[in-house]
From TrEMBL:
<comment type="pathway">
    <text>Phospholipid metabolism; phosphatidylcholine biosynthesis.</text>
</comment>
<feature type="topological domain" description="Lumenal">
    <location>
        <begin position="1"/>
        <end position="14"/>
    </location>
</feature>
<dbReference type="GO" id="GO:0031966">
    <property type="term" value="C:mitochondrial membrane"/>
</dbReference>
<keyword id="KW-0496">Mitochondrion</keyword>
<dbReference type="GO" id="GO:0005789">
    <property type="term" value="C:endoplasmic reticulum membrane"/>
</dbReference>
<dbReference type="Pfam" id="PF04191">
    <property type="entry name" value="PEMT"/>
</dbReference>
<keyword id="KW-0949">S-adenosyl-L-methionine</keyword>
<dbReference type="GO" id="GO:0000773">
    <property type="term" value="F:phosphatidyl-N-methylethanolamine N-methyltransferase activity"/>
</dbReference>
<comment type="similarity">
    <text>Belongs to the class VI-like SAM-binding methyltransferase superfamily. PEMT/PEM2 methyltransferase family.</text>
</comment>
<feature type="transmembrane region" description="Helical">
    <location>
        <begin position="96"/>
        <end position="120"/>
    </location>
</feature>
<feature type="topological domain" description="Cytoplasmic">
    <location>
        <begin position="181"/>
        <end position="201"/>
    </location>
</feature>
<feature type="binding site">
    <location>
        <begin position="182"/>
        <end position="183"/>
    </location>
    <ligand>
        <name>S-adenosyl-L-methionine</name>
    </ligand>
</feature>
<keyword id="KW-0808">Transferase</keyword>
<feature type="binding site">
    <location>
        <begin position="100"/>
        <end position="102"/>
    </location>
    <ligand>
        <name>S-adenosyl-L-methionine</name>
    </ligand>
</feature>
<feature type="transmembrane region" description="Helical">
    <location>
        <begin position="16"/>
        <end position="34"/>
    </location>
</feature>
<comment type="pathway">
    <text>Lipid metabolism.</text>
</comment>
<keyword id="KW-0594">Phospholipid biosynthesis</keyword>
Length: 201
């Protein structure tokens, strides 16, 4: 295998780069399609018997796919050039800080939503009583997406990987699209719930 030129920051000939970007695009797209279908047709619920089992099945799939994405991301960076300019204590500590903030956002989001609603339980009809407004939702509309992006960014800095930063950019763009796509539909679900409650009263 011929190594990339020294001047190259990213080697586009490495298939792992495109595999990682493909993984990044596929995951949120797949979950949104599957969850919307579940809301309309109850396909998973019919398959496994109850909404809670459906959430458990989908949540497991999302978790495993996330792990797979992270492994492919690390694998992609191993096959890419390093930028020695990033080999400084400031960059390394910035990377660790980014990961710490990212984990804070992801874990606190999961705590506030609970596992059921973290893994799209509202699409299965398992709605929360009211919208969560406590931290981190008090400062960000979609903290889990931002937290995940920060984890990718921090890891890329620590690995001194321009390709990692490119993949992180794809993560940020895909999540930005997913926020509008998912947020609007979730808002619609809760609006319909409130409309039904109003009719009953």
């Amino acid at each position: 295998m011929t190594p990339p030129p020294r001047a190259s920051l990213v080697d586009p000939t490495q298939p792992t780069l495109w595999l990682a970007i493909g993984h990044v695009v596929f995951n949120p797209l797949a979950w949104n399609i599957i969850s919307r279908n579940e809301y309309r047709n109850k396909t998973i619920t019919k398959l496994v018997g109850t909404p809670h089992r459906g959430v458990a099945l989908l949540g497991t799939a999302i978790f495993v796919a996330g792990l797979s994405r992270d492994v492919v991301f690390a694998w992609a960076m191993e096959h890419q050039p390093k930028l020695e300019l990033l080999d400084t204590p400031l960059v390394k500590y910035s990377g660790y800080t980014s990961i710490a903030l990212g984990l804070l956002l992801v874990l606190s989001s999961t705590y506030q939503l609970g596992l059921v609603n973290t893994y799209l339980g509202d699409y299965f009809g398992l709605l929360m009583e009211k919208r969560v407004t406590e931290f981190p939702f008090s400062v960000l509309e979609h903290p889990m997406y931002y937290g995940s992006t920060l984890n990718f960014f921090g890891t890329s800095l620590i690995q001194r990987s321009p390709a990692g930063l490119l993949i992180t950019l794809s993560v940020a763009l895909v999540y930005q699209i997913a926020q509008g796509y998912e947020g609007d539909f979730t808002g619609k679900i809760y609006a319909e719930r409130e409309k039904k409650r109003g009719k009953k009263k």
